[in-house]
Amino acid sequence: MASRRRMLLKVIILGDSGVGKTSIMNQYVNKKFSNQYKATIGADFLTKEIEVEDRIFTLQIWDTAGQERFQSLGVAFYRGADCCVLVHDVNVMKSFDSLNNWREEFLIQSNPTDRENFPFVLLGNKIDVDGGNSRVVSEKKAKAWCASKGNIPYFETSAKEGSNVETAFECIARNALKEEPEEEMYVPDTIDMATARQQQKSSGCEC
Ligand SMILES: Nc1nc2c(ncn2[C@@H]2O[C@H](COP(=O)(O)OP(=O)(O)O)[C@@H](O)[C@H]2O)c(=O)[nH]1
Ligand SMILES: [Mg+2]
Question: Which compartments is it annotated to reside in (predicted)?
């Protein structure tokens, strides 16, 4: 019986409260959108399987539970992240101005080995609002910021309409993959476990 190998990629989503982090994640994982504002999702993360270069990976996407407004997010949130997704609302300048802080906070908290090359992806969200008439952060401005931080990939998204969400996560997964290609989570299936136990017994191994 062939054993199943999967790779776990941890992705965290950061940005000001209200930019649409939870909505983007829900749109990607559950294909759902709600206009209602919910500060928490009641879970630390959601997972979704994704195929990249003919291999299956499990994306583990960590969203804040609204605590980004008033307190730090805690070490468990940042620990072992393979990619950090930064989000701003293209209609709110302050959310764009906060990106430097979020990026710095991430680098301080997670302390990656290679600070300069850690994979970030930026999403400019809510492009659907008011047919684009209330937009204050241009694509050019966002791209210039990304270029100044070592060419961070940039996507304009609408969690409401689902636009670009799938494409963005494909890029996120590919970038997460660059970070820790060797970190594998081995998930034996039940048959494997039973066979292993049987073998242990017959070889007299007590461990
Ligand atoms: N029109 C529109 N509204 C959005 C979009 N993304 C999120 N929202 C709304 O913005 C509010 C905040 O979204 P939420 O996902 O809770 O933001 P979070 O605090 O960053 O997690 C909610 O009312 C959402 O319905 C979007 O792409 N377009
Ligand atoms: Mg949220």
Answer: Endomembrane system
- Please tell me the distance between residue 17's alpha carbon and the centre of ligand 1 in angstroms: 9
CATH 2.60.40.3090 fits domain 6-191:
no
Instruction: Give the number of the atom of ligand 1 that is nearest the alpha carbon of residue 38.
Output: 16
Q: Could you tell me if the CB of 129 is within 6 A of ligand 1?
A: yes
- Give phi and psi for 129, each to the nearest 5: -60, 130
Report the separation in Å between the CA atom of 189 and the middle of ligand 2, taken as the mean of its atom positions. Answer: 34
**Where do the structural domains in the chain lie, given as residue ranges?**
6-191
Q: How far is the CA of 26 from the centre of ligand 2 (A)?
A: 10
What does the pLDDT look like over 113-137, one tens digit per residue?
A: 898 999 999 999 999 999 999 999 9
